[in-house]
Design a protein that fits this description.
Elements (H helix, E strand, L loop, with lengths): L1 H11 L14 E11 L4 H7 L12 H11 L7 H7 L5 E6 L5 E9 L9 E6 L2 E4 L9 E7 L8 E14 L5 E10 H18 L5 H7 L9 H5 L3 H4 L7 E2 L2 E2 L10 E12 L52 E2 L2 E2 L30 E2 L18 E2 L2
Antiparallel strand pairs: 1-2, 1-11, 2-3, 3-4, 4-5, 5-7, 6-7, 7-8, 8-11, 9-10, 12-13, 14-15
Helix pairs in contact: 1-2, 2-3
């Protein structure tokens, strides 16, 4: 609760001056992100939010979307395992003469080691850092944020414009921080759609109803065009205007909203080189690294079965129960296995209708065009 109060105080504070601009002096202090908090509740969404366009309202469209994913158990809960495995390695650098008080500080946020980043200016007062405000800066910072959003999928890579970072000392040499910015709507949708597709392909059994809703032409492929017509597009819709053409120019009275507001929490530990993370993954089948007995990332061996085209060493590694030349073979409608988007063995989805008593996800899976209403417990064709 104390951290949420801190976040809320930062979110509600107003711009207190002009841009802090380079040159920045002093040592570059390196920190590693050892914890990422993607909003999963309305309380976290609001606590992280900030006024990114200057309209007097705090925004965090990311939180609205991720809280919705949390409600359907589709939000990733595996950030700590990804950090422990090294699949998620975010870094923050502060250039300052003094980490307690300094009027001219530069900050860079790297979602992964080697990413590009544009410095944002700010100030340190009594160990609390506040960067230039996204709504008023004329020298905006930029970063690639790597965030675990969709369950059983790779972290989403989100290019943030108008980077804001607020940090408060944790009393142990590190910082609790909020990271904010905006991402262009077209980019946000592309990244989101790729994550949704990967999530559904990884665990098709869990997402058959959603897959049917997206796959409008019933060809077994979820295209970006089909996702544009889905409810997901409503969640990934711009709520702020940060640009006038190609020029960064936040507009509190938007003509055309072009970006989604994003805000999330991180914790930083000092780390001069390397990762400085000593924890090991609790669940290696969800850490987005190929480890243990896995034949591909988080699948095969003792983990879940792999989707078409992923690496395998035995038929049991694959959803299709067929491993050919080291790759999982594509599912067919006559392989005697319930795989891909079938609701029962070799029927449903693109494989033709299922008979009475067979499993179904929607009415279209059934020869009778009637799937009983108890789908959550496993629908059956009537």
């Amino acid at each position: 609760m104390k951290k949420l109060v801190f976040f809320a105080l930062f979110a509600c504070s107003s711009d207190a001056g002009t841009d802090v601009r380079p040159p920045f002096t002093g040592d570059v202090h390196r920190f590693v992100v050892d914890r990422i908090t993607v909003p999963s509740t309305s309380a976290e969404t609001n606590a992280f939010a900030g006024d990114l366009d200057g309209n007097g309202t705090n925004e965090n469209k990311l939180g609205l979307a991720t809280a919705s994913l949390a409600a359907t158990a589709d939000l990733s809960l595996d950030a700590q395992d990804m950090i422990a495995s090294g699949a998620l390695t975010s870094i923050v650098e502060l250039q300052a003469d003094d980490l307690a008080n300094d009027d001219t500080v530069g900050v860079r946020y790297f979602g992964a080691d080697g990413d590009a980043a544009v410095v944002a200016g700010g100030t340190l007062v009594a160990g609390t850092f506040r960067s230039n405000r996204a709504a008023t800066t004329r020298v905006p910072g930029r970063a690639l944020a790597h965030l675990p959003i969709f369950t059983n999928a790779d972290p989403a890579v989100l290019p943030l414009d108008g980077l804001e970072i607020d940090m408060i000392s944790d009393g142990a040499g590190g910082f609790d921080a909020i990271v904010r910015g905006g991402i262009r709507q077209d980019v946000a949708r592309m990244v989101s759609y790729d994550g949704i597709i990967q999530m559904i392909e990884t665990e098709p059994d869990r997402h058959l109803v959603f897959q049917r809703q997206v796959d409008a032409d019933r060809d077994g492929v979820m295209s970006h065009a089909e996702l544009e017509d889905s409810v997901i597009a409503l969640l990934v819709t711009a709520d702020i205007q940060l640009f006038d053409g190609a020029k960064y120019a936040p507009n509190p009275m938007p003509i055309t909203k072009d970006s989604l507001s994003i805000a999330f929490g991180v914790h930083l530990i000092p780390c001069a080189t390397g990762r400085c993370i000593t924890a090991t993954p609790t669940n290696t089948c969800r850490d987005r690294a190929r480890d243990g007995t896995e034949t591909d990332v988080d699948c095969g061996g003792s983990c879940q079965k792999c989707f078409d085209g992923l690496s395998c060493t035995a038929p049991s590694d694959c959803q299709s129960n067929a491993c050919v030349a080291g790759r999982c073979a594509a599912a067919t409608c006559s392989d005697g296995v319930r795989d891909r988007y079938e609701s029962d063995v070799d029927c449903g989805s693109t494989c033709g209708p299922c008979a009475a008593g067979q499993a179904c996800a929607t009415d279209s899976d059934c020869a009778s065009t009637s799937c009983d209403s108890n789908i959550a417990a496993g629908g059956r064709c009537l």
